[in-house]
Design brief:
This is Transmembrane BAX inhibitor motif-containing protein 6. It contains 11 helices and no strands. With 272 residues, it is mostly helical. It has one domain (23-265). α3 runs antiparallel to α4 (56-86), α3 packs parallel to α8 and α4 (56-86) crosses α11 (238-271). The chain is globular. The protein starts with 9 loop residues before the first helix and ends with a helix.
């Protein structure tokens, strides 16, 4: 299948599953500060983009993508705040099904000037429920060590900026060959998750988290260049392109938090 002919990015569904498949059942301020600084991270990724390398329309498109991503971060922060602080709505099955439904609704709504505001509203709803869905993981990490949230956020930001800049500065199509490998990796992760439902192996769980983190880093490279290539070929659906990068950032953040939390718990057990 030609990646440029897909009306719906199938990899988005796989990446969405990676946000929840291994979800673990003064801290509120830490959570909010991390998410509210995310928009500055997304703009920092684009700030040093060599504008002479792409057409003007593609540059405008990328600005729209990263601006939408910044808004998504703010809205996701609000969603996490709802779960961690107010407890008005808890992350769980309903938030997962809701965000999945909104993602499909967004994908099935055509991109045109008449539906732009509607699709942006759907995108914000998706980001809100995604932020709520982060709640259980944030609760777990806070119970282990609240400082892990800051460490994971800084690590995710560095990863996202470095891989984004690498994709922006690289020659066209340099990283598009990764698409098949990354999709195969996501399929492997899904199978590992199913296997672990029966075996309950901590070794398999850790292997899943580390491999998933590596694969999602690769997706930052792939998705960034794919967005540029699509824009150069006339696909200016910046709302859906934002979804790809948003899922990349959130999934990396979640997996990094869990990895750091597990390592911290292991260190505490060794001391005892």
């Amino acid at each position: 299948m030609n990646v440029f002919d897909r009306s719906i990015n199938i990899d988005a569904l796989f990446k969405f599953s990676q946000m929840y498949v291994n979800n673990l059942c003064g801290n509120e301020t830490v959570v909010m500060v991390c998410f509210l600084t995310c928009p500055f991270i997304t703009h920092a990724s684009f700030m040093y983009y060599p504008s002479s390398c792409r057409s003007h329309s593609t540059q405008v498109h990328l600005k729209n993508v990263y601006s939408s991503l910044a808004v998504c971060m703010f809205v996701a922060a609000a969603g996490s705040y709802v779960h961690v602080v107010t407890r008005l709505f808890q992350g769980g099955v309903l938030s997962v099904l809701g965000s999945l439904g909104l993602m499909f609704w967004l994908a099935m709504t055509p991109h045109n000037p008449e539906t732009e505001r509607k699709r942006l509203a759907i995108l914000e709803g998706f980001a809100l429920l995604t932020g709520v869905g982060l709640g259980p993981t944030l609760d777990f990490v806070i119970s282990v060590n609240p400082s892990i949230i800051v460490t994971a956020f800084v690590g995710t930001s560095v990863i996202f900026i470095c891989f984004t800049l690498s994709a922006l500065y690289a020659k066209r199509r340099t990283y598009l060959f990764l698409g098949g490998t990354l999709m195969s990796g996501l399929s492997l992760l899904f199978l590992m998750s199913l296997m672990n439902m029966f075996f309950g192996s901590m070794v398999l769980f850790k292997a899943h988290m580390y491999l998933g983190l590596l694969i999602m880093c690769g997706f930052v490279l792939f998705d960034t260049q794919l967005i540029i290539e699509k824009a150069e070929n006339g696909d200016k659906d910046y709302v859906w392109h934002c979804v790809d990068l948003f899922l990349d950032f959130i999934t990396i953040f979640r997996k990094l938090m869990v990895i750091l939390a597990m390592n911290d718990k292991d260190k505490k057990k060794e001391k005892k």
